Amino acid sequence: MRRLLILCIGALAGLAAPAVAHGDAVIDWSLHAQNTILAPGPTAHASTLDFAMVHGAMYDAVNSIDRRYQSYLRVPRADRRASKDAAAATAAFRVLATNFPLQLTTLQGHYATSLAGIPEGKAKARGIAAGEAAAAAMLQSRERDGRLPPGTPYPFPQGTTPGAWRVSPPLTAVEPAWWVGNVRPFMIPDARWFLSDGPNRLTSRAYAKDLNEVKRIGALDSPDRTADQTMAAIFWQAQPVMLYGGVLRDLSARYGLSTPQNARLFGMVALAMADSAIVCWNDKFKRLFWRPIDAIRLADTDGNRATTADPTWRPLFDAATPTTPPLATPNFPDHPSGHSCVSSGIVNALQDFFGTDHIPVDVFSPRFPGQARHFDRLSDLLQEIIDARVWGGIHFRTADTQGAEIGEDVVRWERWFYFHRT
Fold first, then answer.
1. Domain ranges of the chain
2. How far apart (Å, rounded) are the C-alpha atoms in residues 358 and 421?
3. What helix, strand, coil percent values describe the chain, rounded to 5?
4. How many angstroms separate the CA atoms of 95 and 79, rounded?
5. Which residues sit opposite 176 in a β-bridge?
6. Angle at Cα 394 formed by Cα 389 and Cα 396, nearest 5°?
7. Rounded mean pLDDT of the chain?
8. Measuring CA to CA, which residue among 328, 290, 130, 316 is closest to residue 232?
């Protein structure tokens, strides 16, 4: 892998849309999973749970045949001659069909196409059996894991005191998937072990520094924010599964990864992404810390002499910004930043898989179709996300940096306990 990386590190590939499947079932079903999971329009953090289930099952299915690495769940070993593509396709299909029954007809069509490309025989049959076993193990492991149905009432009171979170204008309703933080993690033992240090005290210098920064550069009409910073802020306001799914498929094609390597790459990333989201949302609804728009408008109540109120302040992410869909301050607490948590989990998993930070990537966003943002290093990508949430006026910088630390800590646990060579 390292030798392959050295040979290919300079190669750059365009990515104007999700990569076209090239016959590898992991790649095919990663794209099918993305389209299936995002079709109902779920919240970004809730979608990570289904993505992890699909890719964790595909990893176990393929690895039960390949046997090079430790499995995620306990699944029986399969015949080494079994079809890895049949195993991956079956595992993904069964998980998606169970979780998204309304899309069963479409999924059955994809599954039939996948199986039609695999020669009939014992290898195919044994691969299907391996996929069924991995999917069954995943579905059983996630029974009663804390997920709640749509419409479950929000249980916390909205705050009225300085520092306490409340839904920020122009939104009025609370995020419906607030419960993600109470879902049982996939790899880490307990979300509470990975919580951040928490937001700065309202009377501290650090808090005033954070507030004054976002007040200045995150304002709707800020003269200090460049055009590129404005683009970056809006660019990253999209579903992480959509933003990074194309990146992973591009990296797989660029480095010519095998089916077992793809299963491991996507499994590592998806499971880290989900656990980072779970920790982040557990943290958010413990802190219940207000967003910059409320903090700035009510700065005369925070007890800090270094802050001043601006009752009319609006962030870049304001309904007046001409974007589709419209931008607004998200309707859940500030600390820590969800995008930073999830993106850090993804970036750190990629660094672990490739053994280096020097991975050039192009990222595409539905906000700017066909326009890529290029990064020479994965850490540069993460740093821009940290900055972008401030430029958008929706996060204090401390929420972003501590969110990135959560993703790093989650992957450090993953590094020690999962995906090792057997």
1. 20-143, 159-422
2. 24
3. 55, 5, 40
4. 22
5. none
6. 75
7. 92
8. 316
In 124-266 the beta strands, taken as DSSP E runs, fall at none
The predicted model gives 75-90 an average pLDDT of 97
Tokens describing residue 176? 């419906």
Identify the pLDDT of residue 23.
Answer: 55
What pLDDT, on a 0 to 100 scale, did the predictor assign at position 1? Answer: 35
Domain 159-422 fold: Vanadium-containing Chloroperoxidase; domain 2 (1.10.606)
Please give the angle made by the CA atoms of 100, 104 and 108, to the nearest 5 degrees: 135
Residue 382: phi, psi to the nearest 5?
-65, -40
| Amino acid present at 388 | A
Reported as a single tens digit per residue, the pLDDT across 304-361 is 999 999 999 999 999 887 887 889 999 999 999 999 999 999 999 999 999 999 999 9
Whether the Cβ atoms of residue 84 and residue 128 lie closer than 8 Å to each other: no
Tokens of 155: 């249980």
Burial class (CB in 10 A: 0-12, 13-18, 19+), 421: exposed
Find tokens 């930043």 and name the residue: 337
